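Appendix C reproduces, verbatim, an entry submitted by the partner laboratory led by Prof. M.T., so that reviewers can inspect both the input and the predicted structure.
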Amino acid sequence: MKYPGRSGLVGLLLCLGAVSFVAAQDLALPGDGEIRILFGLQPLPAVPYPPNNQFNLDRQELGGLLFFDPILSGEKDTACGTCHIPKFGMADGRQLGAGTSGTGFGPDRVLGFSKVTGDTVIAEARHTMTIFNAGLNGDETGQPSAKGFMLWDGKDRGMEAQSLRPIIVRVELRGDQFKREYAVDSVLTRLRDIPEYVELFRRAFPMEADSVDQQIIRHGCGWDPTPLQSVISRSTLGRALAAFERELVTDNSPYDRYVAGDDAALSAEEKAGLVLFHTKAKCAICHSGSMFTDSSFRVQGVEQIGPGQGLSSTQTGTPRPSGMDRGRFITSGNTRDLFAFRTVSLRQIGETAPYMHDGALETLADVIDFYDRGGGDEGTIPEDQIDEELVPLGLTPGEKAQLEAFLLALTDETIEVLVPERVPSDLPPAGLELQQDMIAALSVNSATDQALSAPVAEVSGFPNPFNAETNITIALPQSGEVELVLFDLLGRRVRHLARGTYPAGDHVFHWNGRDDDERLAASGVYFVRLSTVGSRRTGRLTLLR
């Protein structure tokens, strides 16, 4: 069947509003190739790296340890990984975040009292965001940027800055052990007193370590040229955390496989939902591109749940609930930004319920209903302030089901983030017991230590270094789907070496030192990433021409 051109087809599909989508097979959808062209479906771009924090395996390893180490919290009871939990899509499954003083994880976490002052610690004002794909957050242009907007209100720019913020926030990591202005420096002092962390920082930041050893004057810092006194600084701590978080990219969802050319990756229902997403449901107006967001800030009128944004603080820093969250306005000062929040990515949306800035919508079905009625649930926000793009959609029950099916297809179920068995502070790693319970429930092994050391896929290259070509060997402990991709030092994809299902055992792939367009790759360091169900491994290759 021949379909009209792009504009004609969009018009045709928009006219299908009166047609029930209850039975996807009854709807004459475009062919797969035409769907990809019509809606401009593209794979995720390469992760953008800041100049001072390029792809670095040593920093990733260090950042992962810090991420799950309660040493970063004032009262040593909470870590980044307490609220960003692998089981809940690197969010926490709660309506509102629960940081320091709490016990338990996820929806079961219970808040308590500061161990230092005995004061109550309330929930955070907002829903915990996933950190999956945060390294691809966009800036004002809407494109992924190393200085992309972070958090619901865009308060921070870039992962390096954002990663330090929880340390100064009382209800997140700080607690009552430190005053806000001394919190980061106090944590740095703790880290400097742990020899293992000092050595890990020196390995991850050799230039800074050399500057400390030689007491080199920092000529580029006009405001303070004093030589570095320790390799552990605000800058290196932020960069280490960001190095770990930036690599948490979900690029192997059914949708991603469909974009790459696998027509069978999406079901008929999911494809119908994809079409709806870009047409009648109007989702793609805001949730556009491969990241499913245009990085804009919009007033949607979500019902205000929870304490809202604190207007002032008590002596110990406990926010006085206002019942109102003014969103982007508190950062921009522009009245047009009152109650506006960032359009977030829809990737991993199936794992990160509840939804919206305050977790007011419990399920994806609730979210679809919200947009179907045109938003504006919060009666205190004037109707004329609600984003003009939000209008009633008139979706049928069948269309809603198809749209939800497509949204669930944006979840990469192959990515796995493992909590380390131990961290250098020797405090209990955040979430380790939850991970152990999951492993036991899956009957991988009844003994936790054996389960955590279960065989995983490995990747290596020989010869290495090489000057023309090399062989890359992957060792698979079990059969399954495999993807093998080469990246350069800046994180740009160079060569797609393999994708498919392979049996257990060793498999060798040849790389001729050329990119996907058969152009000679330049001398330098390259990384080969092996992705399998349940694990990801990265190897380092050096090309010397």
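The chain is about 25% helix and 10% strand. Additional entries are available on request from the coordinating office.
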